[in-house]
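In the design runs reported in the main text, the only information available to the sequence generator was the tokenized backbone. The following block is the verbatim input for one such run; it is reproduced so that readers can re-run the procedure and compare outputs position by position.
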């Protein structure tokens, strides 16, 4: 039997197939999902991993056994599943493990309108029910009659809806390199860009859940090396990279240089605020300080939140925000049921680039204002004490403010840093930003010396 403590995470289900879970487990999750959410209908989609079709079908059968009518949309990106949930106004389940290796798979679940299901919003109850049924040898029959299972292709509808949200009429022709990493971008990008004046240079578009070319995680610099080379080699205007389930999009400029997700957040925020002056924009506390600056300059109201999609989506709903962005290249839109879609962010960038004659690097210079360290991980056994040690050093410094909304955030006159523990590993994650590179390096080195002091002493001993 599956050990659910190993595969049920804070926001989704994820583990190795078949070692940690299999189709039998997926069927129980489908039944439990319907019981807990009381969803009369659900939509189910999956990525290109070898195990995905079987797991998705088993989940659908479990859901139908409890009386839900199931619409299977087959191969799709995660944001396409969110679109289907919103458009059909039904609950949904996406089978993917994003950028994890091929042997992994998982389930991202949502209620009607793409509202997320996490530990505090139903996932804990779903896990409890599945565990009870595993002990009992299976799920009991539902009170409602057996539900139906039908098929529907929603790719064209998804593409048309995205294009309806961004004015791409009149943009100049663009040469665009896209690295899909053998993930779901290879399925969605050709259809979304089909009617645009775009010369598409497709890299690794063959769907292959074994990821033969590189890991489908553009957040790791080594995975966009090929894209950067191709942009330079071909003289392209822009490069785009998608992760395995294509819900995140990373951007490379015409020089082959990565554009920070914070700069994309600021750019898209300014465009969304042009449509809705005075609206709220959400940003997590690790995004560049340029983001709230641009939001205010554009007449909007910035709201700072913790890291994580559940916090972003909750604040989007609470404030009625038009847009939200994270440092990890997740972009959330009110017009997309508050869900994240890298593809829609990419269309905004193409519209902005194609609507003027300058290069992408010239365009984003206004939004990329401050040097930063990027995220630096340190392996530590005692996250709390190391963080407390850093706090003790900076707490008494004149002109410094401290808050603990998410980890430890320390702000000086012309710099700030955030030190945050990982939820799943013995790591502390450090992000530093300042007005100049020298200050970034000074603050970075000062904090890391404290964080890693014990580790270094242990190594010397």
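Verbatim output:
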């Amino acid at each position: 039997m599956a050990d659910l403590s190993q595969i049920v995470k804070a926001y989704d289900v994820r583990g190795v197939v078949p070692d940690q879970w299999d189709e039998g487990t997926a069927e129980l999750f489908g039944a439990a999902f319907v019981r807990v959410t009381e969803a009369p209908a659900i939509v189910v989609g999956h990525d290109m991993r070898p195990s995905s079709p079987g797991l998705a079908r088993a989940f659908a059968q479990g859901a139908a056994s409890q009386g839900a009518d199931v619409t299977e949309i087959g191969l799709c990106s995660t944001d396409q599943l969110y679109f289907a949930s919103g458009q059909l106004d039904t609950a949904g389940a996406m089978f993917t493990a994003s950028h994890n290796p091929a042997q992994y798979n998982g389930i991202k679940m949502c209620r009607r309108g793409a509202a997320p299901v996490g530990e505090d919003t139903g996932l804990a109850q779903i896990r409890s029910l599945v565990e009870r049924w595993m002990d009992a040898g299976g799920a009991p029959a539902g009170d409602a009659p057996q539900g139906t299972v039908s098929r529907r292709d929603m790719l064209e509808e998804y593409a048309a809806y995205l294009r309806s949200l961004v004015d791409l009429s009149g943009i100049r022709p663009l040469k665009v390199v896209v690295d899909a990493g053998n993930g779901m971008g290879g399925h969605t990008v050709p259809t979304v860009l089909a009617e645009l004046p775009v010369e598409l240079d497709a890299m690794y578009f063959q769907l292959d859940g074994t990821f033969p070319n590189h890991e489908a995680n553009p957040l790791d610099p080594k995975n966009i090396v090929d894209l950067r080379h191709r942009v330079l080699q071909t003289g392209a205007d822009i490069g785009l990279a998608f992760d395995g389930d294509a819900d995140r999009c990373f951007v490379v400029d015409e020089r082959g240089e990565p554009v920070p997700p914070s700069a994309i957040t600021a750019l898209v925020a300014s465009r969304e605020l042009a449509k809705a002056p005075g609206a709220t924009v959400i940003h997590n506390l690790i995004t560049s300080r340029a983001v709230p600056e641009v939001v205010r300059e554009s007449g909007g109201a910035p709201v700072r939140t913790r890291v994580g999609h559940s916090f972003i989506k909750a604040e989007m709903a609470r404030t009625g925000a038009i847009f939200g962005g994270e440092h990890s290249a997740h972009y959330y839109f009110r017009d997309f049921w508050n869900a994240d879609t890298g593809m829609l962010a990419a269309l905004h960038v193409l519209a902005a680039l194609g609507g003027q004659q300058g290069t992408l690097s010239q365009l984003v210079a206004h939004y990329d204002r401050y040097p930063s360290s990027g995220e630096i991980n340190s392996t530590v056994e005692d996250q709390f004490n190391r963080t407390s040690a850093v706090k003790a050093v900076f707490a008494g410094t004149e002109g410094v403010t401290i808050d603990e909304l998410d980890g430890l955030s320390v702000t000086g006159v012309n710099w700030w840093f955030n030190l945050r523990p990982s939820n799943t590993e013995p790591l502390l994650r450090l992000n530093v930003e300042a007005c100049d590179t020298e200050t970034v390096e000074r603050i970075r080195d000062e904090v890391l010396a404290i964080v890693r002091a014990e580790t270094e002493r242990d190594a010397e001993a």
